[in-house]
Amino acid sequence: MLRSQQLLALVGLVALAGCIAGAATPPSSMTSADTAKHWTADNGNGTYSNPLFYEEFEDPDIIRVGDTYYLAGTTMHMNPAVQLMQSRDLVNWELAGYCMDRLDLGPAFRLEDGRGIYGRGIWAPCLRYHKGTFYVFSNVNGVGLQVFRSQSINGPWERNQLPGRHDLSVLFDDDGKIYLISGNRSPYPIEELAPDLKSFVPGIRRQLDARMGEGHHLYKVKGKYYDISAIPGATTDQMVARADSIDGPWTVERMVQGESLGVTIAAPARATPGDRGLTLHQGGMCDTRSGEWWSVIMQDHGSAGRMVALVPITWDNGFPLIGLPGNLRKAPNTWIKPNTGISQDPKPSFIHDDDFDSDKLNPHWQWNHVPDDNKWSITEKPGVLRLHSLPANDFYAARNSICQRPPGPESIMTVELDTSGMVAQDTAGLALLSSPYAWIGVVKTAEGTLLQMLDNAGSGGRGRRGGTPAIPPQPPTTGPANPPRHLWLRVHCNFDIDQALFSWSADGKEFMPLGKPFTMTFQLTTFQGVRPALFHYNTSGQPGGYVDFDNYTVAEPRARGIEREIPLGKTIVLTSGADASFLVADTRNDRLVNVAADPNKPAIPQNAKFQVMDVGWGRVTLQAANGKVLSAAGSEGVVLKDLAGVKPGAAESFQWVNLMRGDTMLMSLTNHQYLATNPQSPGSVTVTATGPQPARKSGAEFKWKAVELDAHHSLLSSSSPP
Q: What pTM does this model have?
């Protein structure tokens, strides 16, 4: 066990033995025990925090039908295909279903050719609703455009196929015509679909001739046409084009500009000050009944995959721009929940645990390619998932591997299994499906069984679509021979450092690591983040035995904690993440300044303590030791103001914005920009930062620490937001 703890510490992971339950304390405003254990975007105080789901959800397209919002996302080679979500408040979402149980369009979709359709399959769905029917349009690379329709978002769905179109979007116009825009380079063709959606109208060709991108979202708002698309890449922007007629001419504006929400290109622990960040790009938009406009928009998140954020839209000069007045084309990481007219308690969108006691799998499972339904069962032996092995040369080619998405920023997947049904040349266990992949499992030989961990990075693993030159294979790490037939396997993923550690246990309590930490990556072979997978295959060329999996659990030790906490009622000090300087109240000149930290004097500077006053909706007023509060009323920076018994107004209220990993920003409600210092140059604090720097070194990202309350420090009170 000592070796286990040392290795866990080496890669910055959290040991689980007896500590997960105490890893995070739910805020008192939370109403469900699940919100303490699983990522929930809803903060329970009238605000939400991004990402909307702290796990992969790709290429989002969103619509509103009445008081309900619907969201569709890419599923690529996974089954079921085309994931659909629904929500009443745009923050708390639940799974509505899928468009296809089986994306079975040929042998490659069933992994019968040994190569499969990794990184292909369902791409960039377009979700629409017209005259009582839901429609989903999604291209399948190399096959064609799939058109799904249903009277209910829950299905069943009918399907027909059209010639393929890349990253398309569809508009049902007021005059009955149906337009489709597609493509990834200018000019972008705009075609008409027949009323039955089973053919294109011949002979009529329009185009959008301007520099846009891909991932189109076509709308008509108040008589004008809009196309939203993303410049390809991971550190790019999103564009919007507008025209009075579908025939053009089109005028283009930048809709999002350099907004990373503080997400780094490199693993966060390795980010440098020059890290440009992974930016928001590719997402749709919708309105609420109250007249607000919002976007659900995608963002790369390293090896965890691509995630989505909910961001407000401000209409400016006839264009829908991401952001708030005074800070357009940027987006808050934490903001007030949309005014949808619906009040809903916080609820996690995804709970991945499965004890296999039901007659159905947890609906968040997805099969890697189309499964062979004759070779898996949850009824053959009730209470377990039984996987019969099928022939395969390696894990990439193994059929009936069943996957989930791992939550970030850290998650621990554990599964119990019984290997007594294995036969010679069977291999079964717990994997991370990626390119390269890694797994821990049991290998059955004629002589007995071996416990092994394989890191495919040294075994010819593919790094980009189409493969890479073969790498001399590295042998797997082998554990004890003839391990118990009943054992537990675990993988612990830390996406701050892009490292995963595999371990095993004979009793489900004491886990021992096996193999070196596995480096996780986002790559273009599977075109997804890593996916925990349960697998079983046989290398003899024939089917083999069976393995029983049970009690799959997913722990999220950082779903709550300081990264979501607002220190209401506490006295704190704030230090810059750029230079460790302190925010200090200059009581002589009634202004807020930053003072350099003195390494020779570790004591907190005078007047660096502020009491955090709750003004509702996740907003705070900071009160200095002399009783005055911070105010951003003018252009001279942040000043100290005596409220004289009056409640704090907008100038004295700051949205407390928690970034991950303990960093905090304070947004002024006067211009929706953030408190900012000039690194290495102490002086007045301004409200000029437009957003976080990914490496958290701009002078606008702060660390807070609670300190003792001074005896003379009075507490103001206010319960209603300004």
A: 0.92
